[in-house]
Structure formats: C-alpha cells, structure tokens
Amino acid sequence: MSTGLSFRARLEQQVPAPGTGQPLSGSPAHAMLMRTGPLAQPVTLAQRLAELGLGLRQAHSLLNRLAADEPVAITFPAVPDPAAVVSDLAALGLRVEWRCAPAHVDVKAIRERLDLTQAAFAARFGLELDSVRNWEQGRYTPDPVARILLKIIEQSPETVDRVVAA
User: Fold this and answer.
1) Scanning 19, 75, 96, 129, which has the fewest C-beta atoms within 10 Å of its C-beta?
2) Greatest pairwise CA separation for the chain in angstroms
3) Are 72 and 29 in contact, with CB atoms under 8 Å apart?
C-alpha cells in the first residue's frame, strides 16, 4: 500500500501545522520513553507525538533513537491526559515512565531515621541549616530539586555521602 509519498510528506499531509486546529492544553510533562517491541507504525507514532506538541524534526530524531533501542528522555509541552498517552504509546510499542519530583517529603522523618540533629543532617548532606529548619517547621516547602535530593537521602544516604564528599 505505497502512496509514493515520503515519510515527511505523509506526516505533513495528515497532521495539522502547529498553531492550527485544536490548541494544546494540559501541563508540560517529563517522561522516559522505551521501546517495548518493533516500531511497526512509525508514521502513526510520529503523528501522536506531534499531537503532543513535538515538532516533526524532534519526533523524527526521537524515532531514530528509539529504533536504535535507546531510552529517550523527553519533555512534552502539553499532556492533557497522561493515562491516554501511556495507553496510546503502549499500543504503538512504547513504554512511558513519567518523571516528576515527589509531591511531599517528610524532612524530619528522614533526619530522625538517620538519627541526626538538624545541624548534623545539614552538614552531612551539604544543606543549609536554616533550610532544614524551615522545611521541618513548615515555613517553606523544599523546591522540586531539593525534594528529589531528600528522597535520594531517604533511600540511599550513602550514595549522597559519596557524592558530596570533598
């Protein structure tokens, strides 16, 4: 069933140009994409990626990397329904793992589990003592990067020890 059109021509024919049609809605989302089988429908996959706000060049590059069985980190500009994206991409041979910082981290519980004072906890992991105090007392919430670091400290404090050691 060859139409004589190139891959790019087929994509452009079936996908509206950016700025036309339905506007994208939803929030940006970070994900890892991994191939679970052969990419039997690359045009359909590229179209779905374009619907999620990726340009054709970016979708093409992503497909090449996936075809080489390389996991790909991507930020989708808009994902109105993450479950639908997982389902759609699974049907096309991809596994999606969403990446985001933990919503909440209990700094005091982590520190107490390690049997450290606030000062010792801050010193051991290269944190500001005032930040640790403010997080524990609820005056401030750790930003996303700090929440990721705190989760790593919770799960593998020795790894953070090795990294922050001078």
Assistant:
1) 19
2) 70
3) no
Identify the residue with better confidence: 121 or 56.
121
- Distance (Å, rounded) from C-alpha 66 to C-alpha 128? 41
Number of H helices, E strands in the chain: 9, 3
pLDDT band at 21 (very low <50, low <70, confident <90, very high): very low
Three-class DSSP category at 43: helix
**Same domain, yes or no: 78 and 121:** no
Residues 6 or more apart whose CB falls under 8 angstroms from that of 126 comprise 164
Q: Within this chain, do residues 112 and 50 fall inside the same structural domain, yes or no?
A: no
Query: Can you give the pTM of this predicted structure?
Result: 0.68
Note whether 43 and 77 are same-domain residues.
yes
- 94 φ, ψ (degrees, to nearest 5): -120, 145
